[in-house]
Amino acid sequence: MTQTPVRAPASAGRRTGRLIGLIPAAGLLLALAMLSIALGSRDVAPVDVWDAITGAAQGADATVIRDMRVPRTILGILVGASLAMGGTILQGVARNPLADPGVLGISSGAAAAVVVAALVFGTMPTGDAVWFAFAGAGIATVLVYAIASFGTEGATPVKLALAGAALTALCASITSAILLADPDALNTLRMWQVGALAGRYGSVLLQLWPFFAVGIVVALFVGRPLNLLSLGDDLARSLGLRLVPTRAFLFAVVAALCGAATAACGPIVFVGLMIPHLVRLITGPDYRWILVYSAVLGPVLVLGADIIGRLLLPSGEVPVGVVIGVLGAPVFVLLVRFRGSVKL
């Protein structure tokens, strides 16, 4: 008697394919991290890079690698993962395919806090501006959620988008008014708002790494509630999800992720907007996998753009935010064009 073979569930095959897909993504991230450490105004051989990291080598090259390039690369990885995962969570909570830190007022809140601090305390180094930017981003996130929560329906996706747009306009007006009146505030904002990894070395990393670490780890485990929210409020509630505390918790995670990233490097556009959509082409709509892939491919985009920015000019470099903006705009337009629409 011939026994019909039992086929494995289709979901198991998809899970295996997604796991396998992480291998080349992680390999690409590792390669870019090594290139980020080795390449720059003075290129360093891979053997010398390893000797410098392990402490076996001394001298100018070793100092540059240990004190500047390694912290810069680590920061690029953390910022890329935070922005990509934060954008994913925002799109899921707001059920808005265009949600990102800029749209919901997080970047504008950070900028407003920086110029207000400069007005009060005068010109300050980037390391001091970081804390004001982080506080501004966190306050903006809380305000957006609080404003959208008014009413019996709570923080619905439409109200979140409207609250974010209103707060963005308010913060932009405050920033413009202060900049017109105070040149010191303009100088401080110019140093912070360029959207760059250059100059953000060990001191910035030491200040913000706990927020990055906690935010990224927690974000890896919020895929299930995001999947339930994507089904709609009524169905999510019927499946046992408590909408108000869940959205509040997710916004707190976004505040840690995007607030730390924006405070560290200034506003870097398109990472939180574009990476989740690109990842959906690989993983489908399951937020558990979107978050995992975003944690890998977000740093790939940031490090790749940073390397390009270092090599474009013979002397000096192009900030990573500028490179991502130039490359990201046409890529996102093509993504929308060939998919017909941007879907969550």
Automatic annotation (TrEMBL):
For this protein, the parts annotated as crossing the membrane are 20-40, 73-90, 102-123, 129-148, 160-181, 201-222, 248-275, 287-308, 320-338
Q: Which Pfam families match?
A: FecCD (PF01032)
Which InterPro entries does its entry note?
ABC_BtuC-like, ABC_transptr_permease_BtuC
Membrane topology term reads: Multi-pass membrane protein
Per UniProt, the keywords (alphabetical) are: Cell membrane, Membrane, Transmembrane, Transmembrane helix, Transport
Q: Which SUPFAM superfamilies does this chain map to?
A: ABC transporter involved in vitamin B12 uptake, BtuC
Q: Where in the cell is it found?
A: Cell membrane
Q: Family, per the entry?
A: Belongs to the binding-protein-dependent transport system permease family. FecCD subfamily.
PANTHER family membership: FE(3+) DICITRATE TRANSPORT SYSTEM PERMEASE PROTEIN FECC-RELATED, FERRIC ENTEROBACTIN TRANSPORT SYSTEM PERMEASE PROTEIN
Q: What is this protein called?
A: Iron chelate uptake ABC transporter family permease subunit
